[in-house]
Structure formats: C-alpha cells, structure tokens
Sex peptide receptor-like isoform X1
Amino acid sequence: MTNKSQILYNIFQEILAASGNSSDSQSINETKILSVLREQATKGQGNNLGSILVKVVSDAQSKLNLSIKPDPCGYCDGDFRHVIETYNGIHGYVSLLVCTIGVLANSMNIAVLTRKDMAAAPINRLLKWLAVADVFVMVEYVPFSIYKYLVLPEKLDFPYSWAMYLLFHMHFAQILHTASICLTLALAIWRYVAIKYSDRSHILCTERRCSLAILTSFILPPILCTPTFMVFDIHTKNVSDVNGNPDIAYHVDSDSQGTLYQINFWVHGVIIKLLPCSILTVISLWLIGALYSANQHQKNLRNYSACPSAEKMVKRQHKADKRTDRTTKMLLAVLLLFLVTELPQGIMGLMSGLLGPCFFKRCYNLFGEIMDMLALVNGAINFILYCSMSRQFRQTFRQLLLQRPLARFLPPAASHSESHNQNTCSEKIKR
C-alpha cells in the first residue's frame, strides 16, 4: 500500500472509530464508508453529511499535502459567503414562521378588503387580489420548506415524487409571484392615473377596467414563464444506497446549453423583474413629487384663507386632500417595499444571463434562500402597512373583530333615516 493510500485508509479508520465501528475497520469498503457517513450525519449536535465530507477532504488535503486547484468560477467568494451559508442553514425554520404569520395577515387583509364599504374602491380590489396571490404563494411554500430544509437533510433521499413536487413548486411559485408583480404594477399605474388625471379619473378608472387589470395580471404570468417551463426538467443520477445496491436519485435541473437557457434568464431578469422595477421607480418618484406639491398647496391655501366661509371650504378641502395623501403614502410604501424585494432578484437574473451557468450556480443559488425570504416578508408585511397608514382600514378591521359571530349572516338593521322615511310614508298613506 502506498503512503497516500495508507493515509486515506487511516482517515477512514478514524471515521469508523468515531462512530463506534472500530471492530470493522479491517474491512473498509465503499458501502461501509457511506453507511458510517450517514450514521455520523444523523448523530451529534448539528452535524450533517456535508460538514463531515468537508472535514474528510480537509484532513486528506493536509495529510497528503495536496494542492486543490482553485475554482475557475471565482464569483461570490469571500467572508460574506460563510454568513449567507449560515443563514441558509436556518432558513427552513424562519420561512415557516414568516409563512404562518403571512397567511394569517393576508387572510385578515382579504376579510377587511371584501367588506362592503371597502370593496367599492377599485384600489382595494387590487389590494385584495394581491393578498390572495400572496396567500397561495405562502401556503404552497410550507410543504416545500418542511421537506427540503427539515426532512431531506436527515433522509438524504431524492425520490421521483419529490422531484415532481419541486418542479411544480418552481413553476407555481413563479407564476403566482409574477401575478403579484403585475398587480403591484397595476396599483402604481392606477394611482398615477387617478392623481395625474383627477378630472377624468371617473372615466379612466372604471370598475370594468379594474376587472380587466386583475384578469390580465393572472393571465399574463403563465405566458411570460413559458421559457422556464421548457428549460427546467427532472434529471436522474445513478447512486448507491447504504447497502451498496444501485439506486436512482431524481433532481430538478436546467439544460445549461442552448439559446433557450439564455432567453429564460433575459425574460426572467429583464421583463419580469427589472422592467416593472424601472416603471415603479419612475411612478414612485412622481408620487413623491405629487405629495410634496400637495403639501405646498395646502400650506398656501391655509395662508390665503381669510373670511370664515373661505376657511370652511379650505378645511373641507384639506380633509379630502389628507385622505388622498394617506392613500398615496400607503401605496407608495407598498411600492418601495416591492422595489427593495424585487430589484436584487432582477439584477441577479440579469447577471446570470450575461455571465452564464457559472454565476448562476455560484451566486444565484447561494442567495436563493435570502431572495425567497425577501419575497415572503414583502407579502407578509402589507397588513402592518395598511393598519398603520389607513384609518379606514383600521376602523373596518376593528368593526370586523368586535361584531358578533353571527351578525354578518343577519339582515342589516334599518338606519334612523330609513325608519324615519318609512314612518313618513305610512303616515301619508293613512292620510
């Protein structure tokens, strides 16, 4: 046995001894090594198969004085990589917490925005369907997170059913998330038209056009995501199980060769991400300018009013302007939060298309969990924005909580004006 072979033999003997199988160290084979590695991965505090393999390679490198060639793909190297990988290790638990909170929050959004006094406004209809899309994204993300981050590291099993679900998860999440992007873009354009052309907003911002915008937001995403459907597929790999028997592992991967692969990243990075972000940036800047101009106009009106009649009119106009400003500020917060979430994904997708598969595997996959978390937080935090910036939303939510459980199923009580009109009519009939 050569010197290097003896050193490798000793390393695997140490692994066997650490696992309590030192008596079997004389008969080391591939099956025994795999079995012990799996056993070591399932015991101990926080150890996994990846860390054990890293230790084996490190020991072999130091004892054999091997010089490992540097990775020709040097993207995303540095100290920050360790920090991101540390977060990726706890992403499963954090994402489950955010999804649970997000589903509850968006369910309350839907409950409030479907109330009769809220559903009349087209803006609230767009916000309602945005909450619906976010709910479906988070509900579907829960089983994916449980299996990938909690079950799979322990089982080290890649069955065909998991590959099928992973493919479904990839397409379903992308379609629904793209629908959220379209709805957010529709919100921004709707608000821009309502303020820019306020004298014609009753003609331009109609219920029919609102329904058309919602319908388009759910029809367009499957068309835009067509390249992804054609690029990603289920692939197989021949492996051996713990007993040394041949087995097949199924995983989802893309064909990194060909024009379609590049088109997919250009469509995803530019059309789905960067183009909406660019439009939203321009509209957000315009809305900020409109808010500033409105505040200056209100100050001028307050300074100009002198007579009591003019002062009453100014106060009435001031209240209406404040309601408009609150709505605009709330939507502006939604848009800016969306930009913070989506712009990094668009940049990463664009660079993956420009730099090729090397950047995608080294960087895009590295930041995948963080980008998922940003998207989940973006969908979960809207309820807080609505409550903090919309008095009508807070009042409706309070009424929804305080009403009796069966009150919504009872016929509405007649108001004082209605009862007065009924009494007046009956007196006229008697006369």
Notes: Residues 413-431 have pLDDT under 50 and may be disordered.
